[in-house]
Design goal:
By secondary structure, the chain is mostly helical. It has one domain.
Length: 85
């Protein structure tokens, strides 16, 4: 149970980090061609794309807006409440 709660909490913070990095990249505060930023960005994408892809198939296409991270965060928050973390 402790391992599951740790994994859910870690997923929550990884999704938050991914959202913040995507905003900073969109507003050109961060550049993905910098080695550290690029490796972090591609690493986060490799971790989260298997979670986001099934959600994107279900959600309607919204031009330029990705609601998959929001759906994942809502699911993680519900799961955390169910586990009483």
């Amino acid at each position: 149970m402790i391992l599951l709660s740790w994994a859910v909490t870690l997923l929550y913070y990884v999704v938050i980090l991914h959202v913040i990095m995507s905003w900073l990249i969109s507003f050109q505060v961060l550049n993905i061609y910098q080695p550290i930023v690029g490796k972090a960005w591609y690493g986060l994408n490799r971790i989260l794309e298997p979670i986001y892809t099934p959600i994107r198939r279900v959600l309607p296409n919204t031009a330029g807006l990705d609601f998959a991270p929001l759906v994942v965060l809502i699911g993680v928050i519900i799961l955390r409440r169910m586990l009483h973390i």
